[in-house]
Amino acid sequence: MPRNLVVFDFDWSFVDQDTDRWVFEVLSTPLRRVLQTRKSGGSQCTPDVVNETMADLHAEGFKKEQILDALRMLPLHPAMKRAVLGLKERLADTTFLCLSNSNEIYIGTILEKHSLTNLFSEIITNPAHWDAEHPSLLHIGRRLPATSPPHGCKIGCLANMCKGDELDAWMAANGGWEAWDRVSYVGDGGNDFCPIVRMRKGDWALVRKNMELDGRVKEEGAEKGLKVDVKRWEGAWEVEEIFQTL
Ligand SMILES: [Mg+2]
């Protein structure tokens, strides 16, 4: 039986939202604005900006349960859930890997809500933990700490994580690329371009239409020597259809 690896970006790929923005959109419009202003300032890495705004949320008196409840109501399309569970049932030895610039508390909470805690064999993302003294304060860190040497990615990954390096490192620890008959990658963001550039002919990139990744594939794909088969999708139902042809 062929060995399939399915790699999922999380925000706007596995789920139908941006986890970082969503928590503030549910709880506080003024803090959602603060997040936007900080992001458009452009000088900080995404997890740093979210971490800073989480501290503001705590200072305003929001509780851990409110943050968790916000995450539990974040939209996961039923067709996406059906897509992964259907594939798992049909091709039982499919391995699912999550590669995300969100954080482990957000992703873990959402997966638990949907009874999908055991779907991914590994979740590669930013670390997060609740403060020991202030139980409603969430700290979000960087996958690659600011104190580590920079990853040196030339494709444009953020300072906290080079998704291409992360995928290569996971491969090295899991039998190498040759251990997998086909690797499929579901993504939407500009930082999903780096890993798909490293994928092989015959692998599948499921690229969400009209998002940043789609633009990069069109504009830089040929120049960067993209080899992977690109399959565009807009809604989760189309991912389900594509998975049925794996
Ligand atoms: Mg995304």
Mind sketching the topology for me?
Blueprint (H helix, E strand, L loop, with lengths): L3 E5 L1 H5 L4 H9 L1 H13 L4 H14 L4 H9 L5 H13 L4 E9 H10 L8 E5 L1 E3 L7 E3 L22 H11 L8 E6 L5 H5 L6 E5 L3 H9 L8 E5 L2 H8 L3
Parallel strand pairs: 1-2, 1-6, 2-3, 6-7, 7-8
Antiparallel strand pairs: 4-5
The chain binds magnesium ion.
Descriptive report:
With 246 residues, the chain is an alpha/beta fold. It has 2 domains: 181 residues, Rossmann fold (3-Layer(aba) Sandwich); 52 residues, no CATH class. The protein contains 11 helices and 8 strands. A 6-stranded parallel β-sheet has the order 3-2-1-6-7-8, with helices on both faces. It has a two-stranded antiparallel ribbon with strand order 4-5. α2 packs antiparallel against α3 and α3 packs antiparallel against α4. The protein is globular and about 50 Å long.
Index terms:
246 residues, alpha/beta, Rossmann fold, 2 domains, six-stranded parallel beta sheet, two-stranded antiparallel sheet, 11 helices, 43% helix, globular, binds magnesium ion
